[in-house]
Structure formats: structure tokens, C-alpha cells
Amino acid sequence: MRPLEGIRVLEMGQLIAGPFCGQLLADFGAEVVKIEPPGTGDSMRQWGRTDAEGHPLWWPVIGRNKKSMTLDLRKPEAQDVVRALAAKTDILVENFRAGRMEAWGLGYETLKAINPGLIMVRVTGFGQTGPYKDRAGFAAVCEAMGGMRYLGGYPDRPPVRIGLSIGDTLAGQSGFQGALLALHHRDRTGLGQMVDASIYEAVLSVMEGVIAEYDRGGHVRERSGSILPGIAPSNAYPTADGDTTIVIGANQDSLFRRLTKLMGQPELADDPRFKNHRARGENQTLIDEIIAEWSATKPANWLMDALAEAGVPAGLTYTAREMLADPHFEARRSIVRVEDETVGPTAMQSVFPVLSETPGEVRHTGPKLGEHTDEVLRDWLDYDASKIDALRTGGII
Prior knowledge:
By secondary structure, this protein is of the alpha/beta class. The protein is built from 17 helices and eleven strands. It has two domains: about 10-205 and about 330-395, Rossmann fold, CATH 3.40.50.10540; about 235-240 and about 245-315, formyl-coa transferase, domain 3. Helix content is about 40%, strand content about 15%.
């Protein structure tokens, strides 16, 4: 039995943040019904790279394990259907702009009156309160205001972004965590609650000590490229294999001593410039240059084997190509290949975290638009064929 088996979820909204929360809930067994606009569906059905035939490859991942139901939420009849579904729902996930659900008569207070046990996860750029609540907030904007964008890149250049919508996924994870906490509370009290998961605060929550560093020390953490200032050696170093780099983390005294022995330069561990953590941090550029000069003469695979043997943390900078070929990824099933009716067998990251007794599972890829509309109306609401046909004729579904 999967840990969330028997939990019913309505996923509303589109793009990444809310749907990623829904993906996590579905991965661990919840019955997630994704509500999409008739005819077009979620924009994620078109986003991202495509295969050779032009089929988008992101949707099979973010839509996995879900059911798809179409509803035109702008129409009162569709809003009536949502209220009826909410009465039989454990968790509702939405990521519309603040106030949109209220405008449709689907706000938390309305749905709570119908179902006091309902947990409503609300993912927005800036939250449900405060002077910015009505602002549009895509991940890039919220990553900037949450402090992450400022730290990306090198100090002599403008900030850069990582090639992922990290703010969206952090917010989705935060919504997932909040839903689990709310489920635990409901188990004890019978009452649901609202989970307010803003993207900027999801980013802010992983900003380590940057707030305290400024508040108590007046320090503004700056961009530092591929290093963390004062943490050395811990960097990406060249190899003899051209573009392949290796990340080595030997910033502990014992690890640094092991590394210098492997390098054939054990005297470096007793050099006053490098003999302890603070000294290495003060001479970070110099020690990185020395290690880079050595690593550039060695093949990447030799470095990996030798560093592993020496007990020094190291890893090559992987792309998807290397991940798919790595025996450790294969042994742990970190990547799974799932059959998709449209694109064929598709590799994707597996369910995480790994639970020993009730693990999650990728049961199927993203469904076709509206594939489960009739099933949900029939099984959740006991609608008969004539009532479903009437909704379809009226353009509601």
C-alpha cells in the first residue's frame, strides 16, 4: 500500500508550481484529478523540448500518475461541479493568482463550509496576504526577490539563473510538505486548513544564514562563482578529458591530507598556508590553482576511481547522458523508463524520497487531455451518462 493511497486530490491551475505539488502527491499514491480547460489543457502539454516527431517531453513527467478531467472554470455550471467534487476531496491544490478562486465562488472559506476537513494548498508568487498578494509572480521574479538570483554567477558579471524553474519546484515541494502536515493535523482533529505556499518564501526558506549574516554582522553575501568563499578546496576542476570537469570536496583537514597524498604533494597538508580550514580559506585561489594543475593531467575516470579509493568526495559534472549511463543510478533505479502511448518508453527521474515499506511508484505518464472526465464524474459524483452528455453539450467539460 502506498502512503497516500485513499487520499483524493483535486489539482487546479497550470504550469509548474501547483502541478509539481500534485505530481509529488500522485507519486506516493494519492488519486490526483487534474482539472484542465477543455480543448487546450495545461500549457505544460506544449512546453519544453520535443522528440523527433514534435511531441513535448515535459508533460509525461509532470503529469505522471494523475487523471485528467476537463472543466471550463469560467462557467457557473463548472464551478458547481468543483464544489461538488470538493465535498469529497481531501486536498485541493491550486496556483491561480490570489483572488481568482474567490471570484469563481471557490475560495477557501466557501469550500471549507462544504467540507470542513478539506486541505487547500494555495501556491502563488507572493502569498495570500500582504501588499504584493495581487501581483503576478513567476519563478524568475520570486527567485530574484527571495535572494537566490543575486547569488548566481560570478562577482564581475550580472546575476544569472540556473537552467531550471527552481522557485516553482521549491514552492511545489513546500505545498506538498504543508499538505502532509495538514493531513497529520486532520487525523487528530478532523479539521482541514489552508496551506499558503508562496514562491518567494519557498526560495527564502533555503537561503541558509544570509539574513542573519546581514542582520547581526552587516554582511551581504555576494556572488562567488563555482566556490563558497572560505570553503576550500571545494570546486570544479579540469581533467585531461577536455570539457569534462570534476567536483572535489576536500575542505576538511583529514580529507585535504588524503587529497595531497594522492596528488603526490603531502607536504601541502603541513604548509602554513593550507594546514587548517581558515588558512585554506584565506588562500583559496592558490590551492585551487595547485589542484587544477594536477587534475588537468589525469583522465576523469582515473580521478574518480583514485579519489574514491582515497576516501575523498568527488563527482563528475553530469548531464542527462551521464546519468543514464551511471551504474549507481541504475542500481538504485534513480531513473525509470515508463511506457507512454504517444512518445513511447520515456526515461524520467524516479519517485523520491525512497521509503523502505511504502515506496512511491511511477504508474503511468501524463494522461491525455480529459481522459478521465467521465470516470471522475461517474465515480465521485454518481453522474449518469445523460448528465455527463449534457455537460459536454453545454461546453462545460
